[in-house]
Design a protein that fits this description.
By secondary structure, the protein is of the alpha+beta class. It has four helices and 18 strands.
Length: 277
């Protein structure tokens, strides 16, 4: 029954996502995305990957339209409203800077904090390249919406918990999506995302207020420095209380390579948080 449901859910998502998913060399095919659905209702899936921001733009816009029904949406693009922002902002764990204004609290169970920064910057400490003491990061990553990216520090897991904006209590949303840069490792066809000796590197998990896993999926890959990936889902109502993102198969620091898939995050887009009744 679970398998039949997911097939139905995936078809609904493909009605919007498949027709706009770019078929670039090395980009992950939609059919290869491994997902688990535990909700009795259908879910719309939106995903795309490719070498430029235009590769995913149509799917991002379609997700924005879908998640905005019926209550609107929130977005975080890490730039503080200034596309020319070159500052590097390092914060601790938890990171509550958007809890009141956007209804999102960020924690990392395996890291020490978070950073918002461009890939490289002339301003000390020099963007992601400076924070992680790795000059290759200046060219390994690109921002989808200029100019800063987001990452956990000291870990690869980011938990997003939702609250009513303005200082309210715990909340749920009807959908959530994120943009990623440099997801190189695609999902395999074997068990647990294995393809030979390689594993899918980037995963999004969606949880209900009672802790139940509602849906999970690997993020489509687009191998190559600075390429873009996008993944999101929309439920018929608000039921997502927390999202866990595993970005890459290693915490930032090492050079991105065939062995270590280092991944950075950009825009977060989600439905207007609704108070848990």
């Amino acid at each position: 029954m679970k398998r039949h449901f997911f097939a139905f859910a995936l078809v609904l998502g493909l009605l919007t996502a498949l027709v706009v998913l770019p078929r670039f060399a090395g980009a992950q095919d939609v059919a290869e995305v491994s997902a688990v659905a535990q909700s009795p209702d259908p879910v719309a899936v939106f995903q795309a990957a490719g070498p430029t921001s235009l590769s995913i733009q149509t799917t991002v816009d379609e997700f924005r339209a879908a998640v905005s029904v019926p209550a609107g949406r929130r977005e975080i693009n890490w730039d503080g409203g200034n596309p020319a922002n070159q500052a590097t902002a390092e914060v601790g764990n938890p990171f509550a800077g958007f809890q009141v204004t956007r209804g999102a609290l960020f924690t990392t169970p395996d890291g020490t904090g978070f950073v918002q920064a461009p890939a490289a910057s002339a301003i000390s400490p020099g963007g992601l390249a400076g924070v992680f003491n790795n000059p290759t990061y200046a060219t390994s990553f690109r921002a989808f919406s200029a100019s800063r990216l987001f990452s956990a520090v000291g870990g690869k897991i980011t938990d997003v918990t939702f609250f009513v904006p303005g200082g309210g209590g715990a909340a749920t949303v009807n959908g959530f999506a994120a943009v990623f840069t440099d997801v190189d490792q695609p999902n395999g066809s074997g068990p647990a995302g294995k393809r030979g000796n390689r594993h899918a590197s980037t995963l999004i998990e969606y949880y209900a207020a009672d802790g139940r896993l509602l849906f999970s999926s690997f993020v489509p890959a687009s191998p190559g420095d600075g390429n873009f990936s996008f993944f999101g889902i929309v439920f018929p109502d608000s039921r997502i209380a927390r999202v866990r993102i595993t970005s890459g198969d290693v915490a930032p620091g090492p050079t991105d390579s065939e062995k270590d898939d280092v991944v950075m995050m950009d825009d977060f887009i989600y439905g207007e948080p609704q108070a848990i009744q």
